[in-house]
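Q: For a teaching session next week I want to show students how multiple molecules come together into a single three-dimensional assembly. I've collected the sequence lines for a complex. Could you give me the predicted C-alpha cells for the whole thing so I can convert them for display?
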Amino acid sequence: MPEKTEKQIVFDKVKDTPPLAVSLYTMDYNKTGSWRNVRPVIDYEKCTGCMTCWKFCPEPAIDAEKYEEDGKEKYKPVIDYEYCKGCGICWVECPVEGAIYTEEEGE
Amino acid sequence: MKLTIPEEEIMGHGHLACQGCGGALAMRYTLKTLGRNTVLSVPACCWSVIDGPFPHSAVNIPVFHTAFEAAASTASGIKAGFEIQGKDVNVVAWAGDGGTYDIGIQALSGAAERNDDILYICYDNEAYMNTGVQRSGSTPLKAWTTTTPVAHPKDRPKKDLISIMAAHRMPYIATASVAYPEDLTEKLEKAKSIKGTRFLLIFSPCPPGWRADPKNTVKLARLAVETKVFNLLEIENGLDWRITKKIRKPKPVIEYLKLQGRFRHLTEDDVSLIQENVEKEWNILMNKVGE
Ligand code: SF4
Ligand code: SF4
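A: Of course. Below is the structure for the complete assembly, covering every listed component.
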C-alpha cells in the first residue's frame, strides 16, 4: 500500500497512468467541511454520550473517543469539522434537547 | 454506554455523496459489519461516483467497477477466482435500485438460480438518482421523478422485488433500513455466515432525489417502516417469511409523504390510494408470513 496522504493524486498525461487502474489512495484530500452551511456543535454539559449522533453520521465525521471513568469504558462524540458536510442528521437524531445546537457557518 | 454497532470505520470520509446520503450510510454500516476481507462489485450507480476518482477510493477495500447490468455476474466471476485460489473472501455485489430492479435483474436472477456464493446488496433510493432522478421499477406509486412529472406521476406501484427473489428459493433474503442499524448489522452477520446467494435490500433515502431535507434522511427511513410503506423482514430458503420489526400502531402514510417534495402534488384521493395500496401489500405479506 502507498503511504497515507491527504494530497490529491493527479495523472496529467495518459502515459503516466499505471497499466492497471487500481485506486490505492483514500479520499482524505477532499475536505468536505467546505460544503457546510450550518455547523453542528455539541454541548458536552448536556451530552450523555449515547453515541446516537455517531451512529447516524453518513460521512463519518463524528469520532467515537474512548475514555475511562470510574473504571468504566465510555465514549464521547467529537465532530470532525474538516469533513462534516452539515447535513443535520446528528441534531435531528440526538435524543437530548439542546445537546447539539447549530450555528450558521461563517459566524 | 456501549456502542450498538461495530466501532471500526472502514469507509473513509471525504467521499462524494450528497449531504445526508442514505446510500453512504448503508455502505458505512455494511463495511463495519463485513470487515476488510470483502470485495465489492459496483455497477453504474451513485456509488460509482461516491467512491471518488481514480486513483482514490473512499472505501479502503477493493472495488471492481463494472457495467450497469453486470453487478451479479461480475461478483460471481470474482468469487470463482477466489475459490480456485482457495481464498475465503466476502464477495459483494453493491448496486442501486436501477441496477437491481431493472437493468441488472437477469444477472441477479442467474446468480441466484445457480446459487453462486455471493452477497447481493441493493441500496434502494427509488429512482435513477445518479443520472438525475429518472423513474425506476422501484419508484413508488404517484411519486414525482424527472420522467414522471407532476402532470403524469408514476401510475404503477413499486415492483415487489422481494417476492421475485423469494421465487428463486435462495438461502437468505432480507430487507433493512438505514434507520435501524442494529437490525441491519444483525442481518449482515447472518448473511455473512450463510453459503450461497444472499440478497439484502437496504432502504436508503436520497435527499436531492426525494426533494427532502438532508437532515431528515434517518427520520424518513424510520417513518417508512412505521407507516408500513417499507417492511423489515427476512426470508429463509424463499419460503420461511418472518417480520423482524413489528409495528404495533402504524402511522398514517401522510406523515411519511408530507416530508418529501416528490409527493408535494398529491391530492387527498392520491393519499388515500397510497394508503390503500399499503394496506393491500401488508395483507399480501401477512399471507406469506402466515400470521
Ligand atoms: S446523540 Fe446527543 S446526547 Fe447522544 S452522544 Fe450525540 S450529542 Fe451526546
Ligand atoms: S451534520 Fe451530518 S455530516 Fe456533520 S457531523 Fe452531523 S451527521 Fe455528520
